[in-house]
Write a structure and sequence with these properties.
The complex is a heterodimer of chains A (about 325) and B (about 150). With about 325 residues, chain A is α/β, with parallel strands linked by helices. Chain A has ten helices and ten strands.
């Protein structure tokens, strides 16, 4: 089955063609990263107007790159939520129209579930059950995934998302946007144990996260110290990253042990942080836990993961009709 | 204007809770201060005071731009305009639809709204003193804002 996937929940307009939920024929993202950098701030493509301008060319390019004609698409999947309503409506309405015109099924996909499906776009996906972390600029959620239709939310952030903390610390250090890659890059040159930032673990039994304390501690450190040298910035970047990675690894491994589960799959923008992936693999190996991570190109928002999730839903008969609408808040 | 010195997040939460209990129809609040100054913490207290169910975590709206929470008869609309560029973007995120009596609107990084002379009932400033305590100042404008401020005991 060939599925056209469409993503427009927030900052990216994306389209992809995926065969049988695992094989990517094309994946196109109208990324605005260069625009962000030019303005030195966060100027995302969140305006629905910009999604509207991008959607048709992005879909055309996805079909062209996949060497697939519109007539060969068997089904359409688009992000239904959570996200910005105006942005979501562009992709979801496009999918409805495409499905109507071609008389093929379409389905609306939960963006967070879809991130987990970026782990299935490979020849070696995790087997069920596994612990899944979706960690990005907007979310930090831990799930226990036992099948294609059962995702138990074990924990989530109570304040800032982990990726948001990276972005904000990068901003405080004057390192531009997005924050993740530049912090990881700077951190490589430094020993992270120089400054000890707090690891907020909350209650002993909780799988929830809190990253606002680490952010505030960095803000305070910057307030109290001279951070004009690159070396000092690198020290802060490394120590901050270490604190976040520590918390993520500890919670994930505890979640795996709690569920007696030997697999952890991470996804979302922060899972592109190789220092995090390596540390998690290392730590997990001592408990004989396997770690799965998507290819770097599939960590951020993309449409291939939407198509992959849509494929499993359509196979199960979980399809949408034209009365279905988008939603802004998560219902997973 | 009224001011408190907050040396712990509990004090910021408490201020939020007091103001949350005193809010009236359609109030609009602007929050100003640097990253890590306690704006989202304040809103967590405010939500508690307004009666938002504790099963909701009041998370940072930076990524989502708008987070909405049911709060008894009101809806708490928590916005962060940090990522927006201009008032055109406001239209795109559906800001106009939020302006109604039953919505309490709380805005972090309200710059673009101020540029278009949007009227806030309360403006709350978060600053630091030399010991890194938060100095939180509450300013009122208009009748309902001034009424609220005059009844607020800090």
């Amino acid at each position: 089955m060939i599925v056209l996937g469409i993503e427009s929940s927030c900052d990216e307009t994306a389209a992809a063609v995926v065969k049988d939920g695992t094989h990517i024929l094309s994946s196109v993202i109208a990324s605005q990263i260069d625009v962000h950098h030019k303005y030195g701030g966060v100027v995302p493509e969140l305006a629905s107007r910009m999604h509207l301008e991008a959607i048709t060319p992005v879909v055309d390019q996805a079909l062209e790159q996949a060497l697939i004609k519109k007539e060969e698409i068997d089904a359409v999947a688009a992000t239904r939520g959570p996200g910005l309503i105006g942005a979501l409506l562009v992709g979801f309405s496009f999918a409805k129209a495409f499905s109507f015109a071609r008389n093929i099924p379409f389905t609306g996909v939960n963006h967070l579930e879809a991130h987990i499906y970026s782990l299935f776009l490979t020849d070696t996906p995790p087997e069920f059950p596994f612990i899944a972390l979706v960690v990005s600029g907007g979310h930090t959620n831990i799930y226990y995934v036992t099948s294609h239709d059962h995702f138990e939310l074990m924990g989530q952030t109570r304040d800032d998302a982990a990726g948001e903390a990276f972005d904000k610390v990068a901003k405080m250090l004057g390192l531009g946007y997005p924050g993740g890659p530049v912090i990881e890059q700077m951190a490589k040159s430094k020993n992270p144990d120089n400054i000890v930032f707090p690891r907020t673990l909350l209650d002993k039994d909780s799988f929830d996260f809190s990253f606002s304390g680490i952010k505030s501690a960095v803000a305070r450190y910057i307030h109290d110290h001279d951070i004009s040298t690159l070396e000092e910035k690198a020290r802060i970047a490394a120590s901050f990253q270490e604190a976040v990675i520590d918390v993520l690894c500890q919670k994930l491994i505890r979640a795996a042990k709690f569920k007696n589960c030997t697999r952890i799959g991470i996804s979302g923008g922060v899972s592109a942080n190789q220092t995090f992936v390596d540390r998690l693999r290392q730590t997990a190996a001592t408990d004989r836990i396997c770690v799965f991570a998507p290819a770097p190109s599939l960590c951020g928002d993309n449409a291939a993961m939407i198509a992959a999730r849509g494929f499993t839903m359509i196979q199960q008969g979980d399809i949408c009709n034209f009365d279905h609408d988008v939603f802004s808040r998560n219902r997973i | 204007m009224k001011t408190i010195t907050s040396s712990h997040t509990d004090q910021t939460l408490e201020l939020g809770e007091k103001i949350g209990r005193a809010l009236t129809c359609g109030m609009r609040i602007a929050l100003k201060g640097e990253l890590g100054a306690g704006k989202t913490t304040f809103v967590q207290g405010l939500a508690k005071g307004m009666g938002v169910s504790e099963k909701y975590h009041i998370t940072s709206p930076t990524f989502n731009i708008i987070n909405e929470y049911e709060a008894g008869q009101f809806t708490l609309c928590h916005l962060d305009l940090y990522r927006l560029e201009s008032c055109d973007d406001l239209e795109d995120i559906g800001f106009d639809d939020l302006i109604e009596d039953m919505n309490v609107i709380v805005v972090e990084w309200p710059g673009i709204l101020e540029d278009m002379a949007f009227r806030f009932d309360l403006e709350i400033h978060f600053n630091f003193d030399e010991h890194y305590n938060r100095i939180i100042s509450v300013f009122a404008s208009g009748q309902s804002g001034s009424n609220l401020l005059s009844t607020l005991s800090l």
